[in-house]
Amino acid sequence: MAAVRGRTDTSVIRVQGLARTFRTKTGPVEAVTGIDFEVLRGEIVGLLGPNGAGKTTTLRMIATLLAPTAGEATVAGADLRTDPRTVRSRIGYVAQGGMTNDEELVIDQLILQARLFGLSKATARRNSDELLDTLELTGLGRRRCRELSGGQRRRVDIALGLVHRPELIYLDEPTTGLDPQSRANLWEHIRRLRDEGTTMVLTTHYLEEADVLCDRILVMDHGGIVAAGTPEELKQRIAGDVISLEIADEQADLAIRIADKVLELRSKMRADGLVHLTVERGDAAVVPLLRALDEQGVVPGSLTVKRPSLDDVFLTVTGRTLREGK
């Protein structure tokens, strides 16, 4: 595992066999199928996957907001099942839908949140003022949340999750709905929190976000963890280069058969209207591939050659792209 600045190899979260089944009119639905993972102190761990993969259900279970059907976990030194109150006192949670009240002043909401966690009024005020500065919200404490931009409101959400100084914070889709500039700014704040020693677990379906922010990634699909590692470790699982060809649906299978004959393929797959071929060296493979396709009357609409990305990892381990699952 890659070293992370300011981290000691101490487990803040240890999960074993955690599962959640929902009862519906059409029968039971296994949202999380029995997962094991650890989060070490001072790292950012990302739960990556499409909507419905089980990310938010997992996060809600380890935040004590949803009871597991099976399994056990230790969170911030407390047992998830037998001591949920202690777990709640030691974590911060930033929900996907936000936690702000449109009509309340920012500073009042922060102070109230801190007081609910047992902080004195003076400490609550001091922590709130410090967070407003840290998260670049200086001067906005006396504003109502409806007067803030989307990026500012999301930073207030994070402040609400941090104001009681938890050792562990959960971020559920922290940048959903933000414009690119606000998303990039929020990434900087999240990295700064990690550098200051805060441990974080975040859910996301943005591949770039997982790549940029996370020390480790757990790829989830259909309620299970299908791959885990640092972003680089995951990408190194796919050796070689990925050639992506835009091919008409009726010719895609023929294109794969042709490629299989003229190249030494490490993997081959169709997704999102593209044919994806993994080879040792993309630059050496393109000319013979195009020549063979042309001889059979197959003309690609486009062709790209690139090093493996997290999207390629997801495609390899699940058989589909992240976009298909959303």
Quick gist of this model?
This protein has helices at residues 55-62, 84-90, 106-116, 121-134, 150-162, 180-195, 207-213, 231-236, 249-262, 282-295, 310-318; strands at 11-24, 27-40, 44-48, 70-75, 78-79, 91-94, 168-172, 199-204, 216-221, 224-229, 241-246, 267-271, 274-279, 302-306. By secondary structure, it is α/β, with parallel strands linked by helices. It folds into two domains: 11-230, P-loop containing nucleotide triphosphate hydrolases (Rossmann fold, 3-Layer(aba) Sandwich), CATH 3.40.50.300; 239-307, YebC, transcriptional regulation domain (Alpha-Beta Plaits, 2-Layer Sandwich).
How are the secondary structure elements laid out?
Elements: E1 11-24, E2 27-40, E3 44-48, H1 55-62, E4 70-75, E5 78-79, H2 84-90, E6 91-94, H3 106-116, H4 121-134, H5 150-162, E7 168-172, H6 180-195, E8 199-204, H7 207-213, E9 216-221, E10 224-229, H8 231-236, E11 241-246, H9 249-262, E12 267-271, E13 274-279, H10 282-295, E14 302-306, H11 310-318
Q: In words, what does this structure look like?
A:
- The chain is an alpha/beta fold.
- The chain has two domains: 11-230, P-loop containing nucleotide triphosphate hydrolases (Rossmann fold); 239-307, YebC, transcriptional regulation domain (Alpha-Beta Plaits, 2-Layer Sandwich), CATH 3.30.70.
- It has eleven helices and 14 strands.
- The strands form three sheets. It has a six-stranded mixed beta sheet with strand order 6-7-8-3-9-10, with helices on both faces.
- α3 (106-116) packs parallel to α5, α5 packs parallel to α6 (180-195) and α9 crosses α10.
- The longest helix has 16 residues, at 180-195.
- The chain is elongated.
- Residues 1-8 have low confidence and may be disordered.
